[in-house]
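Chain A, query sequence.
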Amino acid sequence: MPVNLIMLGPPGAGKGTQAERFARIRGIPKISTGDILREAVTNGTELGRIAKATMDAGRLVGDDVMVGIVRERLLRPDTMAGFVLDGFPRTVAQAEALDAMMNGRGPLVVLDFAVPPEELERRLAQRRVCGKCGWTTAADGETVCAKCGGAIGLRSDDAIDVVRKRLQVYERDTRPLFEYYKSRGALQIIDGNRSPEEVSAAVDVAIGTSRKPGTDMRSQLR
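Chain A, predicted structure.
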């Protein structure tokens, strides 16, 4: 049975790290809308220019653009065995569009990563990203990417004033997804304020639980 997984949570909650790990272990694609947008920014495409101005201001890219990106990606054959979505959906309108894309593809499992705001700010202040391949790491004096040799630096949308605005936007626009999926019994909460290894273990438990028929998926994995 395909594993169709959505990872929700505010910026800095660790979704990307957990999505990459889970996708690698299961042999399914990780679909990061943020990575797709940043690639477009790096390549200087029209989408990239629009996205950069929007992200630098701490706002979310419009629903039409995001839905189009995901729809195109889910049409590729490698998603038939399942996928991990990181960064999508971010609004109820995007979730409704995704529902329409899921006809005949099996159920969605939705994980929400909960992390206190002060910890999110700390993590994002330390985060650095490779401008060439998008690899992310914590600030520890590294200036060269360990994966591709590209330059590592602070993301423009990780400046502290932008971070705070991004968190406000998340609470306003994305938190309604919590209620949307909770009402359908498709949501599990993961305590993201732990070590990556502990969070990974909780993710594995959540996925195992959600795939058992008749199991209440609204349990709090804290």
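The chain has a mean pLDDT of 84. Residues 160-174 form the longest helix (15 residues).
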